[in-house]
């Protein structure tokens, strides 16, 4: 549709300017009238679908005619659930009782339309995906909006799964509570094949000038070794590892440490390559060292 208007503007007595205004509809932009916050549900179709739905067929028949199914378990379930339903003009409604204190007795009861299975996707689409009805709100708002008018069994989980699996929401919304990646324990190989190491300090300087401690623990036997250091430079650590660990216990397969600069230096990497240590894993302090760190720290502060 295109609407044209021509207007004349008189700036003064001698000058006349005509301007042309054209209104063109954009088919890619939905009009306000095309957006509805309510699903288009035919009342006559609802009655038919309720009688065909396995969730409500027995309830409708029992409330209208008093007839129960032959299965005793199903019959008992229908009798119990029928207290929460009412059939008005052939349409089944669920009675929801709100627990608000400031509401009257009449306002506390909400008649929720019992939605059959074939119409549930339309309700979810209207209350979550549509611009006016939902606007891709979160689960809580979507659930409370639907609950004011509609009901079906397992509605809570259905709405939750629908909102959480919405492609548009997953692409556009930011996740504030991301789940960490699962941890995979490292396999223990053999004695003195994997060492965990960390440095304590600076501590009170000893009479020999030592103020750091290099703590090394075997992963298999949990055997600890502690070596005093005057500094935590990479050259000092490399000498201690070579003299006290590699020469005494053999070259390990793996060294595990935190991301300290002294452990990540080129000298330590060259030492590992020299002894054919294939991997040097750099991780924060591990639980195997925590107990020894606490015990050694307590011992140093309370000689």
From TrEMBL:
Entry-linked Pfam families: Integrase_H2C2, rve
GO terms, biological process: DNA integration
InterPro entries: Integrase_cat-core, Integrase_H2C2, Retrovirus_Pol_polyprotein, RNaseH-like_sf, RNaseH_sf
Example of a GO MF term: nucleic acid binding
The Integrase catalytic domain, residue ranges: 183-303
Protein name: Integrase catalytic domain-containing protein
